[in-house]
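Q: Hi! New to this. If I give you a protein sequence and the SMILES for zinc ion, can you show me the bound structure?
A: Yes, paste them in.
Q: Okay, here:
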Amino acid sequence: MATMEEVLKALMEQQKVIAAQMEEQNQKIEEQQRLFGRMVDQFKEFEKAMEYARCQEETVQALKLQEKSSKFTTPVQKSMLPTPSKMGTTAFSHQSNVQKPPPRFIPASERAEKIAKGLCYYCDKPFERGHKCANRTTQLFLVEPHPKQILSQRIKKRGSRAAVQYLVEWEGVPATEATWEWAAEFEQRFPHFQL
Ligand SMILES: [Zn+2]
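A: Thanks. Here is the predicted structure of the protein with zinc ion bound:
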């Protein structure tokens, strides 16, 4: 028959075992919590890494776009220059895109007249030494080439007839660039030209 003292001692032993087990459990729980915390941290790191990767991807995409757009703008700028097929039709509308007025056309006859009167053919003011033309910098001019001299002439078949052609040397253009022009049209274009 166990004594009261023996029972209490056994109970206390059991208490100690349970307490030790509980302590062990607590340690396990704490360890689990630490592990869970580390996993959360790792997940956050992973998220950060993903965000970083996304940012990088976006940056790469932005750079690619920039590269594309710069590749794209180059031919656009080039196309602003009038191409032979577009000459005189859309060439001027391209000019208006860059907010410049369309070039003002100065026929050779008008130019010759202004020169004869001693006027600047860009702004109609007296053309004096050192004339600084304000129009020259703000307005684009298309000056019709002016004939310098007739180098030669010939007779060519024109349709069913024969017609005269002049070999025209143009002002400011080398003589080697002289062009053959039909005499009839030439005299119409440059009525004041002394043949
Ligand atoms: Zn002027």
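A: The pocket of zinc ion is lined by residues 120, 122-123, 125, 131, 133, 135 (CB under 6 Å). Let me know if you'd like me to explain how to read the tokens.
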